[in-house]
Write a structure and sequence with these properties.
This protein is mainly alpha-helical. It has a single domain, classed as Ferritin, core subunit, four-helix bundle (Ferritin). It contains 7 helices and no strands. The chain has helices at 16-44, 51-76, 105-125, 132-159, 163-182, 190-197, 205-222.
């Protein structure tokens, strides 16, 4: 297990495996920070039902784009250029979850509550990262992500006050939930274990997915919803 902490100046001295793993995961993270805004800015920022919701989505989008900028800066210090990500649209996103449109307000609420929460888990995994420039930016990003998730829960709580709204939320949850679990990656992944060995992440795929399921099950129960079959999409097994 690699336990050293390194700065940007140390990166060139690291083994190629470390360099490749770190650049890959940072590239995915930078791209994912644009995934949400590119789904909901045009569709929901001015169509949300209240001025408060519109403000929150606009604020969330601005913060997510700023998170993208921070990860891009880390990559730029390593002479990695991902500027093309800004020009990419949803269909070009690295992770599949960011390619499908958010058609309903329930979709928007589920995105904030469940998909952003997966993003929070991935960010937490970098909180003790062996690459210190990455570890340093995580606390503030996580603080903002918690607000994004809280807004998602507000949306779902309001919707679930009526039978029609609850049915819409359940429909959206049924579609998104297996894909949320899939976002953690394949169980037993060799790359996942390599991230652990190099101190880039602190959990493997299955550990993150198990903790996530236990956390969101409480939210699902509080909303009076049914947990979808976690094995409906078995790609992560």
């Amino acid at each position: 297990m690699f336990t050293d902490k390194i700065e940007a100046k140390d990166f060139p001295k690291m083994p190629q495996e470390y360099k490749d793993l770190f650049i890959k995961v940072m590239t995915i993270q930078a791209d994912s920070e644009l995934g949400g805004p590119h789904l909901y800015v045009e569709r929901w920022v001015l169509a949300a039902p209240t001025a408060e919701d519109q403000m929150m989505l606009a604020k969330t989008a601005a913060e997510e784009i700023d998170h993208h900028r921070k990860f891009v800066k880390i990559l730029a210090e390593l002479n990695v250029d991902v500027s093309h990500q800004l020009k990419n649209r949803s269909k070009d996103r690295i992770l599949e979850i960011f390619r499908d449109p958010l058609e309903t307000w329930a979709d928007m609420g589920c995105f904030g509550t469940f998909i952003d929460r997966v993003g929070g888990y991935h960010l937490e995994d970098f909180s003790e990262c062996s690459y210190l420039p990455a570890a340093r930016i995580i606390p503030q990003i996580l603080k903002e992500e918690k607000q994004h998730i809280a807004h998602g829960i507000q949306i779902l709580t309001r919707l679930c006050q009526t039978p029609e709204g609850k049915a819409e939320v359940q429909k959206s949850l049924d579609r998104m939930y297996p894909r949320c679990l899939d976002m953690f990656g394949v169980t037993g992944s060799k790359r996942s274990e390599e991230y652990l060995q190099w101190g880039i992440k602190k959990r493997n795929n299955e550990q993150g997915r198990t903790q996530y399921r236990a956390e969101v099950k409480k939210i699902i129960d509080q909303l009076g919803l049914q947990e979808p079959d976690p094995l409906k999409d078995r790609r992560f097994l």
